[in-house]
Amino acid sequence: MGDRIINIEEAKAAAEAMLFASGDAVSTEALASVLDMDARTMENLMQELAQQYRSENRGIRIIRLEDAWQMCTDPARYDYVAALVLQPKKRRLTGVQMEVLSIIAYRQPVTRAEIDQIRGVNCDHAVNKLLEYGLIEEAGRMDAPGRPILFKTTAEFFRHFGLSSKDNLPVVSPEKIDQFKEEANEEADTDITV
User: Fold this and answer.
1) Which of 3, 80, 89, 106 is deepest in the core (most CB within 10 A)?
2) Which residues contact 165 (CB under 8 A, 6 or more apart)?
3) What distance in Å separates the CA atoms of residue 138 and residue 131, rounded to the nearest whole number?
4) C-alpha distances in angstroms, 187 versus 3, 103, 136, 177, 191?
5) Model pLDDT for residues 30-79, shown as the tens digit of each residue
6) Average pLDDT of the residues in 138-158
7) How many Cα atoms are found within 13 Å in the side-chain-facing hemisphere of 75?
8) What is the pLDDT of residue 170?
């Protein structure tokens, strides 16, 4: 850092930042070298910083490992960390789920019956998974017999796909639409023999 003179609070903040960014133990000498301090001064500063973390009852601790320092979770907070880490991970979307999600994104708000009609098969499982993943949500009920539930995409959907609104959904070219129609017609005309 050159001949820059920093105060103790700045040195503590810098040491804290280095430990956080490193993720591993950092030697007292390495910290002292970056901050242009002697090792003894750095050792005292780190002991003071570690004590400050303990006295403020933070969820993070700074611990000494031989001649190095490292940030770690406060053992009293392990249960919270374990609960977070053990939460079920969101799985990759299947082809069916992507198809259903696409229908909902482009046709929203849309009912299950409309989704089933577009796909030609029952999509209950895919809709339920998309609800579980937080990518779609209920958007009220249709004013029709039976008052079916309407579905729309969520803010999580937009975050997940890097969109700011449904207006940013990719536009399918007319040529591509014609190609899809042609492929669908060919599939429908195919004779299946046993």
Assistant:
1) 106
2) 158
3) 8
4) 75, 20, 30, 15, 9
5) 999 999 999 999 999 999 999 999 999 889 999 888 889 999 988 888 88
6) 90
7) 1
8) 82
Say which residue the tokens 């998974």 belong to: 129
Token representation of residue 174: 């007319």
Tell me: pLDDT of 161 over 70: yes
Q: What is the DSSP string of 55-100?
A: HTT-SEEEEEETTEEEEEE-GGGHHHHHHHHTSPPPPPPPHHHHHH
Of 6, 9, 15, 7, the C-alpha closest to 62 is 15
Angle, helix 39-55 to helix 8-22, in steps of 10 degrees: 80
The owner of tokens 């669908």 is 184
Chain position carrying tokens 């975050």: 159
The pLDDT value given to residue 83: 83
DSSP-derived 3-state class of residue 36: coil
Q: What are phi and psi of 107, to 5 degrees?
A: -110, 5
Residue 3 has pLDDT above 50, yes or no: no
Dihedral angle of Cα 17, 20, 25, 30, to the nearest 10 degrees: -20
